[in-house]
Each structure stands twice: as C-alpha cells, then as structure tokens.
Design goal:
Length: 401
Amino acid sequence: MNRISTDIAVVGGGVIGLAIALRLRADGREVMIIEPNEPGSGASYGNAGTVANYAVIPVGTPSVLRNFLSLLLNPNSPLAIRTSALPTLFPWLARFAYESLPHRYRENAGQIAELVSDASSAWTEFAAEIGASNFLSAKGCLYLYHTRKAFQAACADIELRRSYGVSQELLSASEVLGLEPRLPGFEGGGLFFPKAINLSDPGEVMRLLSAAVKRVGVEFVQTSVTGMSRKQNGLRIAASPYEVHAHTVVIAAGAHSRKLAAEIGDPVQLDTERGYHVEYDMPEPPIERPVCPTAHGFYFCPLRGRLRVAGLVELGGLTAPENPQLLQALARNARRFFPELGAPSRTWLGFRPSMPNSVPVIRPSKGGKDVILAFGHGHIGLTLAPRTARLVSAILTSKGK
Ligand SMILES: Cc1cc2nc3c(=O)[nH]c(=O)nc-3n(C[C@H](O)[C@H](O)[C@H](O)COP(=O)(O)OP(=O)(O)OC[C@H]3O[C@@H](n4cnc5c(N)ncnc54)[C@H](O)[C@@H]3O)c2cc1C
C-alpha cells in the first residue's frame, strides 16, 4: 500500500466534487480528488445542460403519486421500473410515496426553491471563474403542453412556482411558435422561464472545470474508494493501491455515495434515477433553447454541433445495462417533433443520485464535520454545483463541531 496524506479528500470528481474542490482550494485548503474515471464523465457529462433556477417542483408530487401505475404502464411515459430491481427499491419507493403527499411535496419544494433561487447568477460567476462563459446561453427554457387538459393538470405546480417567485410566462400556442418556429403546433401552449440559462456543451464545461481545478493545485488520484474509517488523527480511506489519510473527507460520489456514507455511520435513502440521452449530429439544431415536452419527460437541448434529447426516469439500480426499449422510445418521440431526425449518432445512460424527496444531502456526517456529505442532487445537480460548493465551504469554515 502507498500511503498518502492530505488535508481534505473529496471522493468523486463529478460536477459536485469538482466544484467543491475548487472552492475549498480558494479557501486555502489542501485538496485531493479521488476519482476512478475521467473527471466529470458521470451524470455530469450527459445531462440536459439546464441551469434550472425554476426547477423547484420535486419529482414526487400528489399528481405523480395518483398516476404512478398508469405512468408505468404507458410505453410513451417518461417513467419505467426494472422489475428485477423492485425488491431492493421497495424502501426508496415507499419513502417516495410518502414524500409525494401534499404537505411533504410543498415542504420539499420550499427547500429546493431556496437552493435554486440564485442558480443563474451563481453559475454565471462560476463559469467565468473556470473560463466557460462562452458555453452559457441565456435564452431561457420552454415547457410544452400537448393539450389544454395537460396544461390544466400543471396549474398546481405553476402556482407553487409562482409562490416561490420563479419567473415564468404563460405562452399561447402561437407565442410558442414565435419563440421556436420549427416546433409543431401545440394545443396546450407553453410555459417560458426567461431567466433560466443553459450550457451549450456540458461535457466541454466539465473538461474546463476539471482543468481549472488542476490549475489551482488540486491533486487527482485515479482510483475508487472502497472503504473509509475514522482513526484518532483523521480518516483512513482505502483506495487501492493507496491508503489515503485525510483530516476531512467530502463524500461526493453521486449515485454511488450510499455505501460510503453508511460506512461512516450515516445511512441515507439514496438510490438512482437512471436517465438517458440520444444525440444527433447537425451543424444547426432546430431550436434555440432547451425545450421540454412535459408529457414525455425529456428535453430537446441545442448543443454545439448536435441536438441532444435527454431525460426519462428508469428505476433500476446502478449495474443493469442500457434499456434499448427506452432509447428507442426516446428516439421515436423525438421524431414526432422533428420527423427529419434519422438514427441517433450516439446514445448514453447515466445515473442521477436521487433522494426520495428530491432534496440533496449537504451536511456534516452525524459523527462530526470531519466527514461532509454532498450528494443526492437528482435532476438538478448541475444547477446546484456552485451553491453546494459554497455550502460545504461554509460548513467547514464555521466554528463548532
Ligand atoms: C438525463 C439527465 C439529464 C439531466 N439534466 C440536468 C439538467 O438539465 N440540469 C441539472 O442541473 N441537472 C441535470 N441532471 C442531473 C445532474 O446531471 C446530476 O445531478 C449531477 O451530474 C450529479 O453530479 P455528481 O457530481 O453528484 O455525480 P456524477 O457526475 O455522477 O459524479 C460522481 C462521481 O463519483 C465517482 N465515484 C463513484 N464511486 C466512487 C468511489 N467509490 N470512489 C471515488 N469516486 C467514485 C464517479 O466515477 C463519478 O465521476 C440530469 C441527469 C440526467 C441523467
């Protein structure tokens, strides 16, 4: 075993771990990231790229709970479950059902609203810091409703967003076409979030973020953490072929964080919502901004040199391979909007780190702030990376245990 030591070890180099490392370095701390793969190549690579300052509605809502079975049975719905994963998933699903009750949904939305409220300004600053300002686009984001009924069903969520001060504008079907003329017509109209920003290439931004983190002197150790324990003078981290000693550990291993947190005495109900994307190479995507046909649960994302169609939720754990039926459904539904799309240029499966209440875990471990938990960002981890980094920094600089 090679023994190495550091002040702070960040486990996981996704957008959350990288943003935290950058921030803690700026605080003057010695920081190491332990990450087995290319930094930023997990969920942080393949997402829809929206800095979703409007995304205050948790996944579990009274309406999702009411319609859960019909969502599962409809082949065009955004939700699927791998039956083989059901026994393992049961506790998470039971908690998800509880968190979808009206009083819990409102409470969860309140917590998320507080976290996302400054996301656009925080990302604008963060992008400048890492040299990625060119990859930010400030054209807002658009939700589409197929029918008037679908729009009416969304009114409770729209009202809740309004109560949290989210900027949103109701658009008629013709106003939608005014913004995005190449979309097909929609009876139900749209909802526009004018202050949302988005990344025109999340993968490139991850590359710039990782380079910025290296530039400020964060050391990268390329391996997996397999175990962790508290010792008298800090933490011992098993990361073969190394044994790492650190004063503080930040667990930011995304969907893989549950086992690590449990080892340190913090059981959490983290699981994964698997998400997919298909991409179509093209010089000019047919839309100007991310567009989400809400019934399908995916976003059309105009990226540099390609159109990405990203979303869906498949409950099914971390090890099963891509589900070809979901990828086919994604491509089939994308062609309903843009019939000229041919076969996808590439496909992708990623693992959202998801809590049953959609609220991320950003706090010290129960045993003290020598271990900080920073995971569970679900659908909004990209959005919340700068804010999470600031919160972790505040925990570590505050006085007290
Ligand atoms: C289809 C899809 C669309 C999305 N769209 C958006 C969006 O538009 N806006 C938004 O804000 N969010 C979006 N998200 C969510 C967002 O991508 C995630 O919340 C975010 O990337 C989570 O970041 P992370 O750093 O926690 O996880 P990850 O990016 O997955 O990083 C975790 C890292 O930990 C490493 N790791 C795992 N185990 C270990 C170990 N034992 N030791 C060391 N390292 C380990 C992994 O290799 C990985 O690199 C989307 C997600 C998906 C799947």
